TrEMBL record:
InterPro entries: N-FG_amidohydro
UniProt cross-references to SUPFAM superfamilies, sorted A to Z: Zn-dependent exopeptidases (SSF53187)
Gene3D superfamilies in the cross-refs: Zn-dependent exopeptidases
UniProt xrefs under Pfam families: FGase (PF05013)
Name this polypeptide is given: N-formylglutamate amidohydrolase
């Protein structure tokens, strides 16, 4: 048994309803808050600083959707430990003792920013580790946590697609209420990411925007977050595979300083029910798969 088996039980969960209302999956990949002791001991910053990278409570905002007939996926390990919203091997060679595999992507923009598959920094830019970590440790996290999560998510998506002919994956995240720099404009309550129109039918972000705007939220698209690896990797709208990222401003549902749910928490959870209802009203025929037009 590895350290991963001991401390994550389970590493992630898929709550699948007995009767599905629609082919819509809600996913929370960054809400994990189970921190391995070895990780805490290797960190140069305390637990409170590490937790700033969490999408705190987002999994709780959507877990009730299981009772409404929608599957819900939630991860228990923290993104500062390993980030499943990255390619499997986006790794910074400066972080590790030992040689990385030749196929590792060491030059992505995310690696350069310290936010690869094994992050070097937390969300506010603080370095995580006191010293380099073993390559085998990093590869163990990928094999034991990252890959099983993506195998399970891919299986759920494929089964849904085979059963319904289409699928919508709603990837749920949260963002700090203010940006890193003062030059960044005020962030809206919700940012919809569809990789600039490439990860899903335009119907889907339109429904998200209309539904949430009607509930009183300010809504933006693709800035500052257009969607990460999950949105890009699983979205193929021509084949009826749709992914959309929904990024919540943390100020709308929690006290960021105290890391506590605010009085508006229940209302935001209720609004996710409204969003699920609205998305389930999209005619399946409008979501593909689509055949190429004859020449």
């Amino acid at each position: 048994m590895t350290e991963f088996d001991d401390e994550f039980s389970p590493a992630f969960e898929i709550a699948e309803p007995t009767v599905w209302r629609a082919p819509i999956i809600f996913n929370s990949p960054h809400s994990g808050s189970v921190y391995p002791n070895a990780f805490l001991n290797a960190s140069r910053i305390d637990l409170e600083a590490l937790r700033r990278s969490e999408d705190s409570f987002v999994d709780e905002l959507i877990d009730h959707l299981y009772d409404q007939g929608f599957p819900v996926v939630r991860v228990h390990f923290p993104r500062s430990y390993i980030d499943v919203n990255r390619e499997p091997y986006e790794l910074d060679p400066r972080m590790f003792n030992g040689r990385l595999p030749s196929f590792a992507n060491t030059r992505s923009m995310r690696v350069a920013g310290g936010l690869g598959t094994i992050p070097r920094v937390v969300g506010d830019g603080q370095e995580i580790y006191r010293e380099r970590i073993a390559v085998d440790d990093a590869l163990g996290r990928i094999e034991t946590l990252y890959k099983p999560y993506h195998r399970a998510l891919r299986r759920l998506i494929n089964q849904t697609h085979q059963t319904w002919g289409t699928v919508i994956l709603v990837d749920c995240h949260s963002m700090p209420s203010v940006g890193v720099t003062r030059d960044e404009p005020r962030r809206p309550d919700i940012v919809i990411g569809d990789r600039y129109g490439t990860s899903c039918s335009p119907l889907i972000p339109s429904v998200v925007e209309e539904t949430m705007a009607a509930r009183g939220y300010s809504v933006g698209r693709n800035k500052p977050y257009a969607g990460g690896f999950i949105t890009e990797h699983y979205g193929n709208p021509a084949s009826g595979l749709h992914t959309v990222q929904v990024e919540l401003n943390r100020a709308i549902y929690m006290d960021e300083r105290l890391r506590q749910r605010s009085d508006r928490f229940a209302r935001v959870a209720e609004d996710f029910t409204m969003l699920a209802d609205a998305l389930s009203g999209i005619p399946l025929a409008d979501l593909g798969p689509f055949q190429a037009a004859a020449e």
